[in-house]
Amino acid sequence: MGRFNLDPAHEDSREACDVILLFDQPLILFFIMLAALFLVVEIGRVIGKQLSVNEDTLRHEQLVASRDAIGILMSLLLGFTLAMALSRYDQRKQLMVDEANAIGTASLRTTMLPDLATREKMLELLREYVEARNRFSRAALDGQQMTQSIEQTKKLQNQMWLIATDVARSAPTSITSLFVQSLNEMMDLSEKRMSLLENRVPPPIWIMLTLIAILTCLTVGMTVRRRFWYAMMVTPLMISIVMALIADLNSPRSGFLQTGHQSMERLEQDLNAR
Fold first, then answer.
1. For a Cys staple, 182 with which of 4, 42, 106, 126, CB 3.0–4.6 Å?
2. Between residues 41 and 48, which one has the greater pLDDT?
3. Exposure on the CB side of residue 176, measured as CA atoms within 13 A
4. Interval 145-177: pLDDT, tens
5. Residue 14's pLDDT band (boundaries 50, 70, 90)?
6. CB 264 within 8 A of CB 134
7. Contact 146, 155 (CB under 8 A)
8. What are the residues whose beta carbons fall under 8 Å from the beta carbon of 116, sequence distance 6 or more?
């Protein structure tokens, strides 16, 4: 059965996700990257002018070949990282639906339990559980708020599992077995969602992309013969847009592309209506 781990090692792993806080803010990242990379292009142009790179045809051709090769590498790395972030985004959406379905199944099987008091108690705990999971889904990137939602989830899981254990001991029937199975699946999915929340594009990949982006823009600037704003802006703009999109897909709770909580909200309405 999946359970949340709140030990120091777990806290350290969560803090590791926030090592580069900038990459959790896609819009800010876009403007900072655009300004910084455009400045790098301008620096490259100045360096190329001082070294008289573009006055020597052979040097210019060598730099153009290097620029094209680095540009291709940058495009491939951005494409691979975008695919990585997109797969994690799709998995977060699917797990949200899977967890809502698992909780809904558990609530339906709860109504099959023989004891009326147990049924009412379990349904009440499931209502609280769905509310806690909705708070978890809407939680901002706040360590304290996240910890509170996880603690509430764990507390409710323990209470429901104790009840399920008592039911299984007192009435070991096939109905009880199905109920325990659905409860276990529901708890496993909560841990899978937490694990996927932590499984994001690693900071070393962000650092690699940033360094290669700087190298790309520096080489582009060195091949510029005369300042032309549009030509100097294209490469920084392209890189900034794609990196901001990757950051948006990679960040579970900030940015514009969110997984949505409609499944959990509909489930909460259904349970409250019973």
1. 106
2. 41
3. 15
4. 677 778 888 888 888 888 888 887 777 677 778
5. very low
6. yes
7. no
8. none
Contact assessment for residue 248 and residue 256, using Cβ atoms and an 8 Å cutoff: yes
Long-range pairs for 214-219: beta carbons < 8 A, 24 or more residues apart:
214/36, 214/37, 214/40, 215/70, 216/67, 216/70, 216/71, 216/74, 217/37, 217/38, 217/40, 217/41, 217/44, 218/40, 218/41, 218/43, 218/44, 218/47, 219/44, 219/63, 219/66, 219/67, 219/70
Q: Rounded distance, CA 127 to CA 267, Å?
A: 9
Place of tokens 């142009």: 45
Q: Which of 160, 179, 188, 181 is nearest to 99 (CA)?
A: 188
Beta-carbon neighbour count of residue 248 at 10 Å?
A: 22
Q: What would the mean pLDDT of 230-250 be, rounded to a whole number?
A: 90
Report yes or no: 29 and 244 within 8 Å, Cβ to Cβ. yes
pLDDT in tens, 112-146: 877 788 888 888 888 888 888 887 777 655 556 67
**Torsions phi, psi for 31 (to 5 deg):** -70, -40
